[in-house]
Structures are given as structure tokens and as C-alpha cells.
Amino acid sequence: MQKLRFILAFLGCKTLRTTMRLLGRNATYLPGKIALKICPTFLRQIAKPKRIIVVTGTNGKTTVSNLLTDALEKHGMSVLNNSYGSNTKEGIACAFLTGISLTGRVEKGVAVLEVDERSAMHIFPYIDAELVIITNLFRDSIMRNAHPEYIAGILSGNLPKRSKLLLNADDLIVCSVAPNNPRSYFGLERMESDVLDCINLINDFQICPKCQTELKYEYRRYHHVGKATCPSCDFKSPNYDYSGRVDYKTKRLAVTAGEDTAEFALPGDSVFNIYNALTAYAGLREIGLTKDEAVKTLTDSVIPDSRYNETDVNGVKIIMHMGKERNALACSRAFEYVASKPGKKELILMMNGLGDAKVWSENISWLYDCDFEFLNDENITRVVATGARALDYITRLRFAGVPAEKLRHSESETEAPKELALETETSVYIFYGTDSLDLGYKVRDAAVIRANEKRAKAQEESAKR
User: Fold this and answer.
1) What local confidence, expressed as pLDDT, does residue 465 receive?
2) Across all residues in the chain, what is the average pLDDT?
3) Is 394 in contact with 372 (CB distance < 8 Å)?
4) Average pLDDT of 231-242?
5) Which residues contact 320 (CB under 8 A, 6 or more apart)?
6) Confidence category of residue 419, pLDDT binned at 50, 70, 90
7) Among candidate residues 105, 82, 79, 104, the one with its CA nearest the CA of residue 92
8) Separation between Cα atoms, residue 371 and residue 330, nearest integer Å
9) Out of 26, 171, 440, 460, which residue is the most buried by the measure of CB atoms under 10 Å away?
């Protein structure tokens, strides 16, 4: 009976996916959802590539999985991935559908799967992952993810025992996952911007888990990420198997693994993206690529423009920057990054996605874990809050000390660019959430139109004089 249900699910949903693609639909979720409804054991029964690489964690899993996929394809491998689909069980089921012929033949040699960390219990029991990469574990959606140690427990209880783990050694919560699994560690050596004391509102790893003594951090990058030791016992951050050193002047990353040192250009200058590049390199080495092969395949890699992209309009830079909604830490990192950039800046805040105010009970609580204080900066000349949570943003910004004269708000996102000053040599950052990318592009286009209109008006007035 199970076999019959599987065949019906497989053939029916392969047909559904093909039909949806012909109609111009993404078909990255619904076919998988229906397949699992028809056959709950679908993920267990479907044929899979011999090699499966999984990337999970709070932040960075999409970027890292995309970097790995691009690199392996450059290396000549045939890769199955869910880069443009769901990272839950429905999306994983749909991804496997794409890599199997109607006769059941596996058409891809390797799978690189981005997996939602909260969904581990629904996915890992059915896939034999060769390598599991964990980027970091931070507070995320309170309704879903509660606390990073809770998520670490879910991962520990569901990871396949034979899977090798590639872990961020600078995140001690990550290091606690599945202690009996084989593992390697990556991390970034001390950087000029590191500090001794936490300057963030969230600081989730302060006490030694062995003896409950307060930990001593040799340096701290942000929140609980850094290098720590316990003054009372032998607990400490693990040594790196892949040790990264950043040269900001040349915008290059050097990675030492044993006696080998590789060097390549960074795809972005934010700390998150430096970690993403290091993680991808370490992942490629763990998969079996040589130092030179890993460097060659990562050369010219770029961060997906759904995460960050720039448009120059008459001397005004308009920058789309993802600020993961309901994720206080991701937005804190983005805010600090923008505040650190030189020059005058204006911001549009629209991180809460479509419908957020109606369907999420937590929709303002995360704002008070987020470091909006970074936006109280003299070079940030205007902040426009927009969408259903515009006034909640304004309230939080006032608590952060941002002067009222710098603040504007607009209920309509596409009307928000009208509140910008758009002075020449100013950068405009549009912060959008993971479920409002399309709306973010519309806001960017409206900002471009507004900048062009302003320039045309200035030229007209100049001609009259």
C-alpha cells in the first residue's frame, strides 16, 4: 500500500510540477506539499543523490548553499538544490522531485540542501547527509524558534549519527550540537573591529556550561560570537581546522587548513558575508576539493542580489539590503554594518513582511531585542518607517535616541520614497524582509523614479535661472 501511495504521489506531483512550470509558476513548494499529503513517507522512499550536503543555521544558510552550489557546478558536478524554494520538508520533497526522472533514475550526482533548523525533525530522519554545515545559532522568530539552545537541542536529537559536522567555532552554541558526531571547525581570527565586552542587547552565552562560572572572552565579534575560555575549568572555544584571516585593504580572505593556506577575494565586506565565504571554502574542502580547486570555483562568486544590490541614480546610491524580519540579531548586524559605512545615509525600514501585523502575535517584541541604537548616528540623516508596523518602528527609534526630526513614516511602502531627501552623494538603504522581496523591488523602483524626478526638476530650475 505504501509503495502504491508513493508511486501515485511521485507521478502525480511530477506532472503537477511540469504543468506549473509551463504556466510560469515557481513550483518549489506545492508539488512537495501534495506529495507528502498523499504519501507521508515520501521523503524516505524517493531516490536521492549519493552525496547529500546540508546547510542549516539561523543566518547565512541561503547564501552558503548558493555559494556551494555555484562552486560545485563550476567544478563540473551535477547539483540538485533548493536554492529558489522552500527549506522545509515540502521544499526538500519538491527539490528531490526535480532531480529524478519519470523512471525513478537519479539525474544529479550531489544534493546541496538548505534546511530550516526548526524543521530538522521532519527532514534529517529521511536523508543520509554526508556533511551538515551549521553557520550559527541565534535568536530568531520567538513564535517558532524560542531560543538558540532549544534549536541546538532539536538538531542534536535528529542529526544522523554518521553525518560529519562542519561547525562555526566562534559560536559556542553551535559547538554544542551533537557532541558525538565527527566534526571540523572553522572560524575567523581576531579582527580590528573586535571588542572585549558585548555591546549588543542580546548576549546568549555568558556562563560556562560545565561549571557555571562566568566566561571570559578573549575577544568578541558581536553578541555571543567570539573566542571564550572558562577561568575555572578546561572549557574553551575549540581550535580551528579552517582558520580565516581578513585583509580589509585588499578585500581578501586567507584560510589556513593544516599546512595549506589559500587566499581569495571576498564576495562582500560585511562580517556575515566574510563568514559565508569562509564557510563555503571549508565546505568545499570537506567535500573533497583541493585548495586550488576550492579557490578557483569560489573566484568571482557573488552574494545573491535578493540579499544585497546597488543602483546608482544621478549620484544617489539606492541599496537593497535584507533585514530578516522577526530576527533581532540579523537586523542588528545590518544596522551596524550600514552605520559603519562612510558618507551620509537615508534608510527605509520595511522588514516586517506582508500580512505580518495580522498573523504574527510577536510582531513587535523582537524590535526590543534589536540594536536600533546603531541608527542613532550623525551620518544617518533620515529614517523612513513604512508598512503596517511603521509607528512601531518610530516608537523603537525614539527609545533608541534617534531625534524626532530625522524620522518620517508612511503606511504605504511604495509611497515611502517620497519622504526621502535624496541629496547627491547620499546612500539610501532599503531594509526589507525575506517574504517581501518583490515589494522591496517596487520600493526601489519608486525611489529611482523619485531621484530622477528630483534631478529633472533641479535641471529645469537651473535652466530658468
Assistant:
1) 66
2) 91
3) no
4) 97
5) 305, 308, 309, 310, 430, 432, 440, 441, 444
6) very high
7) 82
8) 10
9) 171
Average pLDDT for 382-396: 94
pLDDT of residue 360: 57
Write the single-letter amino acid at 203: N
pLDDT of residue 395: 97
Cell of 392: 512601531
pLDDT band at residue 369 using 50, 70 and 90 as cut-offs: very high
Place of cell 571554502: 281
Residues 10-67: tens digit of each pLDDT: 899 988 988 888 887 877 889 899 999 999 999 999 999 999 999 999 999 999 999 9
